[in-house]
């Protein structure tokens, strides 16, 4: 009873020679032989023969067929056989129920799989590593990444040993979740437990580090894959290029692109060209951005809205307003509707455009987003407003756009106000931004220190917030309230996304112009501090000068 070709004859021989009290046992042994050879069709035929001979299948019959369906990666078949059990008065045991968590999960019936898993925890069924792997994958695909980690911790608590499939499934989930720090921790645990990374491990790590913008780790994994002769695919190359585009790693991106072009298995796609055009555009390299656009079109890809948005940014950066208009018209000719991100880019370009050319761009904005165009008319054209009309229209604009672009829109509008010397409008927009919670946590107060946090603001918005804060400090003194022992301004440190200069340099320069007694803290990068005594004296002197 070990050769699947011989086993039907052996079964038939015994059936002719003996009359066992439980003939189902003979059938179950035969089913197990077929399971070993993964022959589900033969098992189903044998099951039909059982019924024709009047032999009633038992739990072992069903669990053997179900386990074969799992081995053959046919979860729907496993579900089909499991759901036949009640009609034969068979009650699944814990092992079968445990197997069905995996089967239902793979078949896409998540609710049933989770119901069985809840029951498994309550009744303490014994679950195998395959089932845990399916549960982790299931939670990952559903976007419940904490659920993935909880299942993993429960698995370890039950003493079930992890394997490469589970580690790779977890790494993939952490990549989807954009949690590179957790991917790093899981990878460290994996290697400490003696497992060597395979292609799937490296691919999951590359996705996790790339999406999470862990550039050093991502580039190290890429280098290690090349050293081990592992092939990259287009998706992994694009993940790296998108990361480089977001972080401004131009040199690394160009090397990766050359590797990709020299690969025999990877072809550049729209995403590839989009990332490269973004890199050239952010650095203001118009000729290379245009060359890459032409190469994209020659390769059979139409420019996407992401590509055209990058080009608008590029032309705006170098002051080529007419080319911004040309790109906008190209967008319309391609039948693409300007989205919030594209309109935000147009608005940002306006903050870099000379006053005399703003009207050209305003016409584009009017077509792209009439609500934004209405707000800009008050700033660019000096439209007279009635009682609170500007604030009302700005509020309607912010309520009509996606949450992720509200802050960039507000920042750019305030920058434009500062450029046009419309400081009252800038303050009104800042106040509206605070009211609508576009800006949060700009100010913090404790018993010992009051602070202004400018890290998430553009240059114009930062200076506007600084003036508003100084006015608030003056009002505090006028009301007879005391200031805390320490006052601080937090600008963050490093290059500012809205300026080649760091925000700290701009704020420091402005504080010097105001003769404000704030000085950079030697032990806290990006912080400017002053004492209560110095601040009080300065605010009172400002009051005298104003009077």
From TrEMBL:
Q: Name all Smr domain ranges.
A: 452-534
Keywords for the protein's UniProt record, in alphabetical order: Repeat
Q: Does the keyword Repeat apply?
A: yes
Sorted alphabetically, which Pfam families does this protein's record hold?
Answer: PPR, PPR_2, PPR_long
PPR repeat intervals? 23-57, 93-127, 128-162, 163-197, 198-232, 233-267, 269-303, 304-338
Q: Which PANTHER family match?
A: OS03G0856100 PROTEIN (PTHR47447), PENTATRICOPEPTIDE REPEAT-CONTAINING PROTEIN ATP4 HOMOLOG, CHLOROPLASTIC (PTHR47447:SF12)
Family label = Belongs to the PPR family. P subfamily.
Protein name (Swiss-Prot/TrEMBL) = Smr domain-containing protein
């Amino acid at each position: 009873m070990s050769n699947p070709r011989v086993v039907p004859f052996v079964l038939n021989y015994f059936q002719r020679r003996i009359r066992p009290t439980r003939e189902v046992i003979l059938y179950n042994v035969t089913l197990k032989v077929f399971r070993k050879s993964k022959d589900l069709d033969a098992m189903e035929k044998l099951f039909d023969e059982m019924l024709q001979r009047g032999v009633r299948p038992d739990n072992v019959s069903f669990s053997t067929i179900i386990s074969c369906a799992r081995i053959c990666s046919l979860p729907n078949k496993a579900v089909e056989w499991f759901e036949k059990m009640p009609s034969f008065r068979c009650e699944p045991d814990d092992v079968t129920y445990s197997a069905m968590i995996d089967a239902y999960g793979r078949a896409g019936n998540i609710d049933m799989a989770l119901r069985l898993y809840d029951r498994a925890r309550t009744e303490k069924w014994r679950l195998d590593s395959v089932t845990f792997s399916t549960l982790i994958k299931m939670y990952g695909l559903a976007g419940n990444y904490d659920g993935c980690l909880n299942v993993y911790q429960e698995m370890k608590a039950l003493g079930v040993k992890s394997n490469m499939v589970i580690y790779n499934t977890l790494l993939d989930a952490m990549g989807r979740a954009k949690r590179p720090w957790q991917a790093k921790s899981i990878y460290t645990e994996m290697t400490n437990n003696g497992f060597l990374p395979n292609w799937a491990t490296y691919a999951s790590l590359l996705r996790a580090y790339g999406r999470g913008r862990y550039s050093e780790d991502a580039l190290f994994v890429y280098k290690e894959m090349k050293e081990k002769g592992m092939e990259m695919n287009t998706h992994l190359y694009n993940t790296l290029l998108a990361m480089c585009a977001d972080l401004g790693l131009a040199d690394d991106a160009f090397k990766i692109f050359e590797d990709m072009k020299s690969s025999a298995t990877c072809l550049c796609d729209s995403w590839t060209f989009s990332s490269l055009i973004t890199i050239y555009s952010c650095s203001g390299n118009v000729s290379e951005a245009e060359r890459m656009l032409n190469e994209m079109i020659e390769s059979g890809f139409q420019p996407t809205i992401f590509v055209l948005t990058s080009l608008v940014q590029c032309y705006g950066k170098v002051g080529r307003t007419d080319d911004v208009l040309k790109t906008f018209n190209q967008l319309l000719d391609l039948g693409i509707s300007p989205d919030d991100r594209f309109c935000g880019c147009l608005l940002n370009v306006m903050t870099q455009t000379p006053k005399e050319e703003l009207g050209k761009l305003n016409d584009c904005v009017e077509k792209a987003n009439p609500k934004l165009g209405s707000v800009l008319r008050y700033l660019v054209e000096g439209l007279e407003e009635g009682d609170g009309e500007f604030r009302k229209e700005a509020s309607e604009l912010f309520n009509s756009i996606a949450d992720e672009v509200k802050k960039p829109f507000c920042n750019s509008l305030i920058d434009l106000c500062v450029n046009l010397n419309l400081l009252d409008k800038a303050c009104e927009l800042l106040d509206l931004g605070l009211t609508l919670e576009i800006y949060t946590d700009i100010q913090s107060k404790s018993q010992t220190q009051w602070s202004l946090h400018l890290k998430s603001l553009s240059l114009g918005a930062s200076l506007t917030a600084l003036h508003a804060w100084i006015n608030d400090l003056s009002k505090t003194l006028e009301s007879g309230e005391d200031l805390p022992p320490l006052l601080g301004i937090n600008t963050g440190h490093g290059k500012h996304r809205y300026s080649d200069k760091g925000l700290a340099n701009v704020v420091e320069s402005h504080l010097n112009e105001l003769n404000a007694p704030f000085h950079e803290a030697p032990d806290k990068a990006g912080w400017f501090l002053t004492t209560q005594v110095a601040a009080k004296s300065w605010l009172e002197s400002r009051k005298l000068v104003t009077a």
